[in-house]
Amino acid sequence: MAENNFLVDSARLGERALQRKHELENNPASRRSPLAYFPGMEQLDSPVEEAVLQEMEDYDCSRYTAVDVRRALAHQNCSREDFKALLSPAAAPFLEEMAQRAQRETSRHFGNTVYLFTPLYIANYCENYCVYCGFNCYNDIRRLQLDEAQIEHEMQVIAASGMEEILLLTGESQQKSNLEYIGKACKLARKYFRNVGLEIYPVNTEDYRYLHACGADYVTVFQETYNLEQYEKLHLLGHKRVFPYRFAAQERALRGGMRGVGFSALLGLSDFRKDALATALHVWYLQRRYPWAEFSLSCPRLRPIVNNDKITPQGIGERELCQVLCAYRIFLPFAGITVSSRETASFRNGIARICATKISAGVSTGIGDHEEKYDGHQEGKAGDEQFAIADSRSITAMYADMSGEGLQPVLNDYVYV
Amino acid sequence: MEKMMDDCLELGGQRFHSRFILGSGKYSLQLIEAAVQDAGAEIVTLAVRRANTQDKENILDYIPKGVTLLPNTSGARNAEEAVRIARLARAMGCGDFVKIEIMRDSKYLLPDNGETVKATEMLAKEGFIVLPYMYPDLNVARELVSAGAAAVMPLAAPIGSNKGLATKEFIQILIDEIDLPVIVDAGIGAPSQACEAMEMGAAAIMANTALATAGNLPLMAAAFKEAIVAGRKAYLAGLGRVLTRGAEASDPLTGFLHD
Lengths: 417, 259
Description:
The complex is a heterodimer.
Chain A lengths: L14 H12 L21 H11 L7 H9 L5 H8 L7 H16 L2 E11 L5 E2 L17 H13 L4 E6 L8 H14 L2 E5 L5 H9 L4 E7 L3 H7 E3 L5 H5 L1 H7 L4 E6 L6 H18 L4 E5 L19 H14 L4 E4 L5 H10 L3 E3 L9 H6 L19 H10 L3 E3 L7
Parallel strand pairs in A: 1-3, 1-10, 1-11, 3-4, 4-5, 5-7, 7-8, 8-9, 9-10
Antiparallel strand pairs in A: 2-6
Helix pairs in contact in A: 2-12, 3-4, 4-12, 4-13, 5-13, 6-7, 8-11
Chain B lengths: L1 H4 L3 E3 L2 E3 L3 E3 L6 H9 L5 E5 H4 L16 E5 L6 H13 L5 E4 L12 H13 L3 E6 L3 H10 L5 E2 L13 H10 L5 E3 L5 H10 L3 E4 L1 H4 L4 H21 L22
Parallel strand pairs in B: 3-4, 3-10, 4-5, 6-7, 7-8, 9-10
Antiparallel strand pairs in B: 1-2
Keywords (chain B): Schiff base, Thiamine biosynthesis, Transferase
EC number (chain B): 2.8.1.10
Protein name (chain B): thiazole synthase
């Protein structure tokens, strides 16, 4: 399969900007070291990153055989070695058995419940150049940042649909979407929702503490890929380029008082088995250091974006995705698993019966367009989307569909203390 | 039979005929119906965090009239959070009963005994009828008694595991040494295990997953009811001796003593 071509030049970029963009893309020496922290970025003394990356480096998925997979499935508790076998190509013929086991683990820990939530993008300004992302600073899209009144209006529209859990997202621009702005959005969200999560640029421990006090209790940060060499080639500019600062974000969030943290690799950016291994190990090592925390995983695949509709998930089909998700469930039976609207309705229905515990509904990855999408009337302009979604079901439709699958949709199972 | 007729579980001054309590782990309307109708439950646990919703499927609406609600503090990571959740439950109109659950471990969901003692003391002072979920440790159980608990609730095995009486020896010690009702909570996976715990002298059984994951929910609920009654009767009757190795001498060795 041909590799994705991520690099797109907008006709609206000036000559100097274009020159700078090409320089970053073509000349590695023009880029900062991905290990160099920006001033003000907190450095944690934590052994987790080294442990995860070393174990990922050492993972050779071709070493595992059907015997290892059978042994892994026979073990009551899945060890790290067992997990590596379940992620390997040797486990592909055992997919149905893995799904059966995963379903038992899910049922044991979560019953037949599935939590519904919705994401709310409040700004799409971004200072990073991540070549695969629709929000990247060189992509020619309609930029928008909601003001307080607009945020509240969007929240009212969403809350009226019955949703009780919200995930607030911004593009990664500290200039445009500073901490106070996000804090205000959290306080507004507490008025309308029971449960407030954040998916924003990584911040320091004290900043997480502030956002927690504003009402947020869950923080999700996607590492995208755990392969440093590949990370460096995909995240060419901005704070996101600093790989270790991003890696330690969940640990800082927990130290800042957050109840739970979410993790993800974006499958398709690098060797997906290694990325899936590293994501789960990231959770495993942190769980040992912070045993009281709640952990969740998601497993997105690459999707087309505005101005580049050719992006594909690079050979990671639904079977491979299902294998990764089942392996996650068997290895980390206590962790929540979220399945994104990047996937189709039929995949999400099926995977919710096996291992997913959380599913988004009424999704828009654009800015300020919930009313248009929910009620059909258009008002003012909206900001462009981060990526194209594949499942646009409303909360009502999702509620009915999950019930139809024999699952119990839950809108809230949380209390802010 | 007279003995059975008067035999009630007393908690916080209230008397219950049923010794089956429904836990809160996996909730559904069918489960609550089966627990009340087929298992005869008079007490149903309620996770405050799950009731914290506007959803049309609010579990508070599932609870039949006449059933005593036992709100729990699941989600609390320390005593202070448990106290806050208990107060929230009271404000929601759930009454004075509270089951303390404090977990500082998201993997096994094992209770934190130290924090549980602290929370028990604080909540008992506020007039709650406190039922603390605990790891079966005799010293802690004694502290819970002093702190004002209305019962102690030791775990039989990791929650949701259906593994039965993994902590049997320690639960027996609590039953023997503690003057409060000992309610066995978590891990009971089959009616036979519930029966065994009752024979040992447990005051009641709390279960959820064993019913929720059964093939036929109402039938399993009925099986639990009968097993618990059978175990209770056996306990009240006094178990006969069990010969461990070979025959026992029928003439006592001390039969020669005449004073």
